[in-house]
Structure formats: structure tokens, C-alpha cells
Automatic annotation (TrEMBL):
Pfam families: AAA_28. Residues 3-169 form the NadR/Ttd14 AAA domain. This is NadR/Ttd14 AAA domain-containing protein. It comes from Dictyobacter alpinus. SUPFAM superfamilies: P-loop containing nucleoside triphosphate hydrolases (SSF52540). It comes from the Bacteria. InterPro entries: NadR/Ttd14_AAA_dom, P-loop_NTPase.
Length: 183
């Protein structure tokens, strides 16, 4: 099974791209961080990213989803972020990597969970804050750089998806996937 990661700065349009790819029949594994934030908000935590176990909660959910998706019959899956993104988030927030995070990073590397090619969705020139995404555009650009640096330092190849209309971005990924899967 081939597992591809889609990542990028918050507000880059990544989730919209994935929803369209899912509509076209691609197997998608949803992002964990937004769900962790939403669940914590429902529990009364206004700033869950300030909790010491925030990163570990994301890692646990990502691992759970990845393992569950391993039983899907699809030859190819697209992941809305990965533990590598969570590692970048930990860096962005200034947290030292937890034991849980480091163990998951070792597991995905040792088991070769994800393909080395990663779709990197470039920023759109703005970042619209949401209840789960409370980040300025300027901070999102810093986060984007941390993401790039983290992936490349770990030996991943970034497939840059430029800021274009949604249909063009989706087409770029679809064409790349078709060419790769046909080989």
C-alpha cells in the first residue's frame, strides 16, 4: 500500500483539496490535530495547544487512524498530515519532542509507513482564522518554513503544489498520482 502525505501551512487549502480528491474516489485519512482541538474545546479547554499532552493526543489519534486505514483495500491512501507534521508543530510551539512523539517518528521510519514524496500545499497568501486555527498569516509562514525544513531534513521530497484555483491544484495531484500508480 502506498501512503502519501499532504501537508502545508494552516489555511493553505489542504483540506479543500483532500475533500475534492475524496469526492473523486481517492482514499483519504483525515487530519488528527483539528479533531483533538475540537474535542478539547467541547471539554472546556479554550487553548488545548497549551496543554502538556497536546502533541501526544495528536500522535495517538494519528497512529490509531493510520493503523485502522491499513485494513482498507485501497492500493493508495492520502493522509491529511502525518506525525512529521506533528513533530513540526511541536517545534513551532517550542515544545521538546515527547517520548511518544519520538517513538512514533521511529515507528513510521522503521516500518516505512509513508512514501518519501510528500505533497506540500503552498500558502494562498492569507490565512483565515477559525475556531481550531488561531494563527496569524505571519505565524503561518513561519510554520510553513518549519514544515519544509522538517520534511527535507528527514529526507522527504516535497512536491510543491502552487497557489492556484482548487481545481488546478487537485488536477496536479491527480495527474501525479495517476502517473505514479501506472508505473
Amino acid at each position: 500500500m502506498k501512503r502519501y502525505i499532504l501537508t502545508g501551512t494552516p489555511g493553505s487549502g489542504k483540506t479543500s483539496i483532500l475533500h475534492e480528491l475524496k469526492r473523486q474516489g481517492y482514499s483519504i485519512v483525515e487530519e488528527a490535530a483539528t479533531d483533538v482541538i475540537t474535542r478539547e474545546h467541547l471539554l472546556g479547554q479554550s487553548d488545548p495547544w497549551m496543554q502538556s499532552d497536546f502533541i501526544d493526543k495528536i500522535i495517538h489519534l494519528q497512529k490509531q487512524r493510520q493503523i485502522a486505514a491499513s485494513s482498507y483495500p485501497d492500493a493508495c491512501q492520502l493522509y491529511d498530515r502525518s506525525p512529521i507534521c506533528t513533530f513540526a508543530l511541536s517545534r513551532h510551539l517550542g515544545y521538546p519532542p515527547s517520548v511518544c512523539l519520538l517513538e512514533e517518528m521511529q515507528r513510521i521510519e522503521h516500518e516505512r509507513i509513508y512514501q518519501r514524496e510528500v505533497f506540500f500545499i503552498e500558502n494562498l497568501g492569507f490565512c483565515q482564522p477559525t475556531e481550531a486555527r488561531k494563527i496569524t498569516f505571519e505565524d503561518s509562514l513561519l510554520f510553513e518554513k518549519i514544515h519544509r525544513d522538517t520534511y527535507t531534513s528527514l529526507g522527504y521530497e516535497l512536491i510543491e503544489i502552487a497557489p492556484k484555483p482548487l481545481a488546478e491544484r487537485v488536477q496536479c495531484i491527480s495527474e501525479w498520482m495517476r502517473q505514479t500508480l501506472d508505473k
